[in-house]
Structure formats: structure tokens, C-alpha cells
Amino acid sequence: MPRSSGVLIIVENLPVPFDRRVWSEARTLRDAGYEVSVVCPKGRGAVASFEVLDGIHVYRHPLPFEAQGVIGYVLEYATALFWEFWLAFKIYFQRGFDVIHACNPPDLIFLVGAVFKLLFGTRFIFDHHDINPELYEAKFGHKNFLWKIVVFFERLSFWLSDVSIATNQSYRAIAIERGGMAPAKVFVVRSGPDLGRIRIVPADSSWKKGRAHLVAYVGVIGHQEGLDLLLEVAAYIRDIDKRRDIQFAIAGDGPEAGKIRLMAQDMRLSDFITFTGRIDDAALLSLLSTADVCVNPDRPNAMNDKSTMNKIMEYMALGKPIVQFDLTEGRYSAQDASLYAIDVPDFGDKIIALLDDPHRRDDMGAFGRRRVEEQLAWPHESPKLLAAYETALGGGKSDSVPMRGA
User: What's the pTM?
Assistant: First the structure.
């Protein structure tokens, strides 16, 4: 396989370089000799239509709004698809590429891949970030005709794929069982933290707002992320446990950010919760390095049970003990670095138990850090990504790849 092969990565969920998985993949491919281009949306802190970052050509397109409801998603996806087609043709004739690497959601990027495969013989790699049928059900609460369409699009994405990349074993099983892919063409590449970027920094007591303890959340603020449940946990700790020595910090943004802020006000939690919005890496590392406990309140559902959350492994990389609901992939990632709650009161009780036991916090944090260093960090995953590319481009021996069952 020629090392000058070109790659076009298309991602709609987040702008690059803020999508950390995509950015790690892009840099790994660049280091392996590929010429890498990325198409992504514009967003806060990433508004340039074009720039070259670390040798990677990044093309960004506008998205006029953040989707709310079915009609909103249709308009958002149609707009994104128009720009993805336009920029893909522009990049192909300017720089060329041999592979389209599609990062869902949504499961519509296969349309771009299909056109380029038909016209130019371009290979297609489906990087399966979210299980969209389960995501649809989590957002809208039911399986209807549109849900069936989402399942159909997912199947077409797998059908077109020369190789599929799964973020964990649950997603790999879906690719094989629901997607009909050959097991040898499905590679598990976990979203391992980049320890060159995620590092412990000195604690900053100002995050605690004069209180003794800090509980931190970092991530998207949406329905399936369960921030409403975290507010219930904070209220439980305040009202049932009568604790006034704990500050919560919620870092991130998303479609329900305004709703969650208003809910916090209505629940008289504003003094106990700091909403930071999206923050840069320096502030993020400062916040997490200061936190005594980190939380993942993802509500129990099929989507969250099967998904690996980046925030879990980032908490672990910084040596922080975690409290989360008991979900399959969350438990696989964190193991003894986390406590696992069954409901809101249990979640609150487990936070209190950790805050009152610093030695246990230290032991759990140390376990999580070791697990990341020895098993989950990005350097353990990048060879699997390159093996997937070797197979997609015809240079890999699929029966000898050691990481398909990792």
C-alpha cells in the first residue's frame, strides 16, 4: 500500500479538533504517512472555513442551528449533507483521496461514500460512534416508521463499508449481527485518551466556591446524558443528607443546556452548581484536577448501556474516582475506578461515601490511571486503526489481525 494514500474524514457531530477521537485518528493517520483532510461543521472556537492544523487540512461548513425535534434533525442533516458533498468534490479534485472515513451520527454519510465509490472506486470506512436506532429511541421514546428508516440507513452504511470500526465490543456485535458485516472486517478501536494532552495539573480551589468538596461533570448536555438526574442527585444530597459542603460543576454545552440551567434555578440549586459552558483544555484540566469525584449520570437505556463514553476514560486518565449508573460498557471501561448506582438516591449516597473516604478515592483513582496507561490510552488503539486501513486498502491479512476481539 502506498504511504501517500489520501484520506477524507467526514464528521458532523463536532468540529475538529474538538472531536477528540477524530483528531486522534487524523493525527495517527498523518503520522503513518497518509494525506489527511477533514470535513466537519463550524462551531464555537472553530469558525475558520479552512485551515491546516498539524499538517491536516480541515474544511468546515456552516450549520445554521442545532436541531430540536424530528423536523429540525431533517433540516440539519440535509444542510450538512449538501456541504459534505460539495467539500468532498472540492477536496477530491484539489488534493485527491482514496478513502472516505465516515464518522456517524448521522448514518447518512454513506451517501457521499456511495457516490465516490461508484465514480472513482474510493474505499469506504464506517467509524461507528453512535448506535443511531437506540439514540433515536432515547431521544423520542418510541419505535415508529422513522425509527425503521434509521435502522435501514444504518444497514446501508454497513453494507457499503469495506471496513467498519467499532468503539467497543457491543458495537462490534451490532455491526455483525444487525449490520451483516463479516467479523474479519469489523475492528474495535476504542476512544482511548491521549495522555500527551490529558495530564494532571495543580488544583485550583476557586472551582470549589469556598466549599470543601467538588463533584465534576464534563460532556454534552442532552436528554440522554441525564443532567436532570444529576440535579436530582444534588438536591437529594442537599435535602436528605443535609450537606452544604459540596460544590457541583457542569462543564459542556448541548441542546438541553438552557433547560437544565432553568431547572437548577427552579430547584434552588444555583448556589451549589457552577455551569461553565464549553471550556478550553486548560480550564478543563484545571477543573478535573481539582475535582474530588467525577460523575457520569447517563440515564440507563439501550443507547447508553452499549456505548463507551469518552468522559469516563478522561476521568480515569486524571486519576479521579467515578460514580455512574450501572451500564455494561461504563462498567467495562472503569471497572474498579467507579462505583455503580442503581437509582438517584443510591447515586447520591455513593458520592457522599467517596467524599467521606479520601483513601478509597485515592485507591480508585490510582486504579483508573493504571488501567488507562496500561490498556486504554490511545497508543494502545492506534495500531488497530492502522490495521483497519490496511485491510480496507487491500494490504491487510484479515485472519492475522490481532485486535479484532480486543
Answer: 0.87
